[in-house]
Q: What sequence folds into this?
């Protein structure tokens, strides 16, 4: 037990939490934007997966940032497709979302096979690139806390810093700008927005596209930093965990970030634990993030009922 | 002088074939209050929707200050200086008053929303037009009357010179109506024009300069308010004399205690006490009216007695049985019937037929169900009988109830509930959105049930309805009984209103005298 606590309190573990949180945070912020305009994007999982594969394949032929942008663009495109089917053709958002999740699961394997010339599992033989890490080792010069800060903050992906900035940017957008006010109005009570001359469907389209872009970024981070290269089903439910983070975060950017960190923490724990608890089957340990998601959602909805 | 707004020969046929407006002419003078009255289905709402650009007329012309204009959307109407306040407010609950008012036309400072300027502008507007409201409070925390002010401010912020108010008094307590009328007068004195849809005639006579009456899609006539009386207007609206007078329970008949409600406490959806320690006895052959501003516990009280909401404290006895915690079915078996507040959501199943809706509460009755199978023929015959008896305007028992007008749908619900000959009848807002003719009919039938020995518990947002029907009256304020009366001439809407708004509270002795 002491060993577990020592692990959790170590700088290495905190850095690991930041790493595991980044893709979830991107997807969660995307989910938040779509949920706030009233069309919760349930395709985060599939969009992340497609974003990851797109980023990997493009980065093999272009600089790393073009790969990241390609992941973002692929996500934005899928968000636009969802908006088209949901808002123009009046299809149910849940069904459209699941269609994309299913297409992503099968489609990425097919495309991977063509791209690698026959490999159905990984992109290991494509020379894909990685997102560079931001070196902050100068922090180590600060007296006392310097080494700890360096361990925790240095060496993260550029995208991690972008994700942290996005939390602030989205908060500013939602709570400080007129457009954000309209966004929240559409999500909370569409007739009010309509009466004020705002088109709810236009804002929903923007929300879905933005959520796709963010999920695509999450995918790019996953396949160009967390792991370098694409593996089939590499998102492993992170898109669904992100949905949980949106609900648990009470539809607020800060709350969503806290929830994303919570899930990131348990994911990091499930990676660290097998080395410590050797008697426990690894499969059981890997279920921790998902069990925590379910428990957290149950507790949070329970609170809402009795509140 | 050219009228401010003119509608000439407006004709509207809905795609379903309903001819809602037949060659309507309307002329509204500048800086006046012009009321349009008429029964439900007379076409008032359609006309207003056309004037606000929500609906397009099939024929006719609209002129604003003499110039013909086409209102292809509400946005065009707003741009032309026409604003409308609907009965259902379109406010974002968690937004502040200022945010709601400026939404869509926000003042900005660079990228940012200029909150300070928004608050100031709205505050100035509110002061100028005598619509006092705290601009930095979320609207969900405001009472209905103030929410309505926010809606009016929204229109004024967009520079509306003509304001269309759709039944603005329907949701207000008497004192709030006084405040609304003060604001309306200050609006007209500052050059704004008000078009006012209503069906409560005394209010219409008080506030309007001119009154137009519609019936069955036609404009019956326009009169100056000074020359009109309640009676003359009612006759124009219905086309015959209406007697909205219900006899009180005959005196001298012994009323035995039927239902005893003791220390009843009920929680609302947020887990807070919506009804606290209510004690009340209902007697046979008597109507007890519950008055209160919406949201003071009436809904929860009725839901709790009806079995639609758990009771967290106290008890309800019907006759000798304790029904505090039993199911709706058992309550109905004990003799209870319920005409609920919302005929669409709880009173009926919209997609089902009239016959199915009527039989829905009788599925244990051997007449309609034998060996677990429905006897369709007897169900149909039973429905046809009730349709006849309650003169429901419907093609037949097989029509979907959702296609009926509000008044006819309500008649079906009333017919079903009364056909079980209940000993305890719960009635919530029985004539909300129901026209004058059907109102008269529903009132008479509730009175009939009372004369047959039922104990009736009634609530209504319309105080005149409670005053017309109830033998005793109780005022709920924040979930507590603050006053109780035996219905006499001395009890007026103003008296009830001061208790409803919490300005006064009776002493326990005074209350108990009317509660026992």
A:
């Amino acid at each position: 037990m002491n060993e577990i606590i020592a692990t959790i309190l170590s700088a290495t573990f905190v850095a690991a939490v930041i790493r595991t949180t980044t893709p979830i945070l991107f997807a969660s912020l995307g989910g938040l934007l779509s949920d706030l305009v009233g069309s919760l994007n349930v395709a985060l999982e599939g969009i992340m997966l497609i974003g990851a594969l797109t980023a990997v394949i493009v980065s093999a032929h272009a600089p790393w940032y073009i790969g990241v942008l390609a992941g973002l663009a692929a996500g934005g495109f899928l968000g636009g497709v969802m908006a088209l089917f949901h808002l123009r053709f009046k299809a149910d958002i849940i069904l459209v979302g699941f269609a994309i999740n299913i297409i992503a699961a099968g489609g990425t394997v097919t495309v991977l096979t063509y791209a690698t010339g026959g490999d159905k599992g990984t992109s290991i033989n494509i020379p894909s690139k990685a997102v560079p890490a931001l070196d902050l080792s100068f922090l180590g010069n600060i007296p006392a806390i310097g080494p700890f800060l360096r361990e925790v903050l240095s060496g993260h992906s550029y995208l991690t810093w972008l994700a942290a900035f996005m939390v602030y940017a989205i908060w500013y957008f939602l709570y400080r700008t007129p457009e954000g006010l309209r966004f929240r109005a559409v999500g909370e009570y569409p007739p009010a927005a309509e009466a004020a001359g705002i088109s709810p469907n236009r804002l929903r389209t923007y929300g879905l596209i933005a959520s796709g872009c963010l999920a695509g970024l999450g995918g790019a981070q996953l396949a160009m930093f967390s792991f370098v290269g694409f593996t089939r089903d590499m998102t492993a439910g992170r898109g669904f965990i992100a949905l949980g983070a949106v609900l648990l975060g009470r539809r607020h950017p800060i709350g969503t970030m806290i929830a994303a960190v919570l899930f990131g923490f348990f994911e990091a724990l499930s990676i660290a634990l097998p080395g410590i608890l050797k008697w426990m089957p690894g499969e059981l340990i890997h279920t921790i993030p998902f069990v925590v998601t379910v428990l957290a959602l149950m507790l949070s909805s329970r609170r809402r009922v009795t509140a | 002088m050219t009228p401010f707004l003119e509608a000439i020969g407006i004709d509207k046929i809905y795609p379903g074939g309903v001819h809602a407006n037949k060659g309507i002419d309307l002329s509204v003078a500048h800086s006046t209050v012009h009321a349009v009255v008429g029964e439900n289905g007379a076409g008032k709402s359609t006309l207003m929707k056309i004037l606000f650009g929500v609906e397009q007329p099939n024929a006719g012309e609209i002129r604003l200050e003499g110039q013909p204009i086409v209102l292809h959307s509400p946005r065009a109407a707003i741009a032309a200086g026409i604003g409308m306040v609907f009965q259902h407010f379109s406010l974002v609950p968690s937004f502040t008053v200022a945010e709601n008012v400026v939404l869509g036309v926000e003042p900005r400072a660079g990228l940012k929303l200029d909150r300070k300027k928004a608050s100031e502008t709205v505050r100035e507007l509110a002061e100028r037009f005598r619509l006092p409201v705290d601009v930095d409070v979320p609207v969900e925390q405001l009472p209905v009357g103030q929410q309505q002010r926010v809606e009016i401010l929204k229109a004024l912020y967009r520079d509306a010179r003509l304001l269309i108010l759709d039944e603005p008094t329907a949701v207000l307590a008497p004192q709030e109506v006084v405040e609304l009328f003060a604001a309306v007068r200050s609006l007209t004195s500052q050059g704004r024009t008000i078009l006012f849809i209503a069906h409560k005639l005394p209010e219409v006579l008080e506030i309007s300069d001119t009154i137009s009456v519609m019936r069955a899609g036609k404009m019956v006539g326009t009169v100056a308010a000074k020359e009109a009386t309640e009676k003359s207007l009612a006759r124009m609206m219905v086309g015959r004399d209406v007697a909205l007078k219900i006899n009180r329970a005959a005196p001298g008949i012994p009323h035995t205690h039927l239902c005893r409600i003791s220390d009843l406490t009920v929680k609302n959806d947020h887990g807070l006490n919506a009804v606290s320690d209510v004690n009340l006895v209902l007697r046979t052959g008597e109507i007890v009216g519950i008055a209160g501003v919406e949201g003071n516990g009436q809904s929860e009280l009725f839901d709790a007695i009806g079995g639609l909401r758990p009771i967290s404290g106290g008890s309800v006895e019907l006759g000798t049985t304790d029904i505090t915690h039993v199911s709706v079915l058992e309550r109905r078996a004990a003799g209870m019937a319920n005409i609920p507040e919302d005929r669409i959501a709880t009173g009926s199943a919209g997609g089902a037929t009239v016959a199915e809706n009527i039989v829905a509460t009788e599925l244990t009755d051997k007449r309609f169900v034998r060996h677990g199978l429905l006897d369709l023929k007897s169900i149909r015959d039973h429905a046809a009988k009730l349709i006849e008896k309650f003169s429901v305007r419907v093609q037949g028992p097989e029509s979907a109830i959702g296609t009926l007008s509000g008044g006819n749908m309500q008649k079906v619900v009333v017919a079903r509930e009364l056909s079980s000959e209940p000993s305890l009848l719960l009635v919530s807002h029985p004539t909300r959105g129901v026209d004058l003719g059907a109102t008269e009919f529903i009132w008479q039938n509730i009175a009939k049930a009372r004369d047959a020995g039922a104990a009736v518990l009634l609530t209504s947002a319309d105080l005149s309805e409670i005053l017309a029907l109830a033998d005793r009256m109780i005022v709920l304020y924040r979930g507590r009984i603050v006053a109780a009366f035996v219905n006499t001439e001395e009890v007026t809407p103003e008296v009830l209103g001061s208790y409803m708004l919490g300005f006064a509270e009776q002493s326990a002795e005074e209350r108990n005298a009317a509660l026992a």
About this structure: The longest strand of chain A covers residues 133-134. DSSP finds 14 helices and two strands in chain A. Residues 2-124+158-301 of chain A form a domain with the ABC transporter involved in vitamin B12 uptake, BtuC fold (CATH 1.10.3470).
